[in-house]
Amino acid sequence: MNKLKVALLGGGSWGTSVASLVAKNTEVSLWARDSETVAEINELHTNEKYLPGAKLPSRLKAYNDIGDTVADIDVLVMGVPSSAFRSVLREVRPHLRPWVPVISLTKGLEKDTNLRMTQVIEEELSGHPIGVLSGPNLAKEIMAGQAAASVLAMEDTTIVKQLQPLFSSGLFRVYTNHDIVGCELGGVLKNIIAIAVGMGIGMGAGDNTRSALITRGLAEITRLGTALGGQAETFAGLAGMGDMIATCVSPQSRNHHVGVELGKGRHIDEIIESMVMVSEGVKSAPAVISLAEKHGVEMPLAFDVYKVITGDKTPRQIFKGLLRSEVGAESEPG
């Protein structure tokens, strides 16, 4: 394992954090588009824009040139936002050796195609083993050395066991799974529920409301996730329920923050403009609703969040609808 060379593309908070974890185990190069970020990582071993106060490993090297970053690597890790995912893969393709495993960190869906990031990898880098690393992972806590766990999902059991120790470091524990679809969708879908929970908090709702929204939200993402090919038990694990709890309750969560600010009455455009990092829940909401409609899956919470994001309704108009007044059995949608 220590002989493997890893390239991580994306200089945001989570990409930088994962690169720092991997740097403790093997040689890793990080690519970022921002030349100032690259210089800061190399010279000061910090990334103050995305991880204020965190010290990065001195052996972590950053680059501006994708060709230099991925030359002769053994593993490629993708940590760029969903909106840039395909274009970055196309930049990588001429420089990447055949059969190099490609691992996605991105918890979003591609606009217009509604594809998961691993599906985008399949289209752009056919023949490469594909995986996803997902779980309840708040970057600042991990960089602070606090205990956390994640899931590395790949279809090939041999490769996933070889890569598992690459990402495990200190108190960061990595489990394996073969359900790529479930693990990936768990990370995508919980973002929208986190916005719903945040809206409630922004309007003064208490813990009872938050608990109910998280629970009903988990039922929603499980219904859609299984309809799209994921396994139900995956959504009860780290990449499902675990990730949802962390994202729904932590002020560090970007999607939680968006919801809180919406609940306070701010417009979505103003909120997004003021954020340094991307809210994948906002970007993925149209795709999630499209997939739910296509597969006949009822997702009332997600649909209400989508209506607020698009400006068709205000949080106060839909808040009573987040917990329906007409209810049936707990196993039923609604």
Describe the protein.
With 334 residues, the protein is an alpha/beta fold. The chain has two domains: 5-178, 3-Layer(aba) Sandwich (Rossmann fold); 181-322, N-(1-d-carboxylethyl)-l-norvaline Dehydrogenase, domain 2. The chain is built from 15 helices and eight strands. Strands 3-2-1-4-5-6-7-8 form an eight-stranded mixed beta sheet, with helices on both faces. Helix 8 runs parallel beside helix 11. 49% of the residues are buried.
Indicate the topology:
Blueprint: E1 5-9, H1 13-23, E2 27-31, H2 35-44, E3 61-63, H3 66-70, E4 75-78, H4 82-92, E5 102-104, H5 117-124, E6 130-134, H6 139-143, E7 148-154, H7 157-167, E8 172-177, H8 180-202, H9 207-227, H10 238-249, H11 254-263, H12 268-273, H13 280-294, H14 300-309, H15 315-322
Parallel strand pairs: 1-2, 1-4, 2-3, 4-5, 5-6, 7-8
Antiparallel strand pairs: 6-7
Helix pairs in contact: 4-5, 8-9, 8-10, 8-11, 8-13, 8-14, 9-10, 13-14, 14-15
Instruction: Give me the CATH superfamily of the largest domain.
Output: NAD(P)-binding Rossmann-like Domain
- Report helical residue fraction: 40-55%
CATH class category label of the largest domain: Alpha Beta
Number of helices: 15
CA radius of gyration: 19 Å
Here the CATH topology of the largest domain equals Rossmann fold
Based on CA inertia axes, which overall geometry fits?
globular
Task: Report the uncertain regions.
Answer: none
**Whole-number tally of structural domains:** 2
Strand sequence of the main sheet, in spatial order?
3-2-1-4-5-6-7-8
CATH architecture of the largest domain: 3-Layer(aba) Sandwich
Strand proportion: 5-15%
**Biggest sheet overview:** 8 strands, mixed
Class by alpha and beta content? alpha/beta
What is the string of helix and strand elements?
EHEHEHEHEHEHEHEHHHHHHHH
Number of strands: 8
Tell me the distance between the termini.
48 Å
Average predicted local confidence, pLDDT: 92
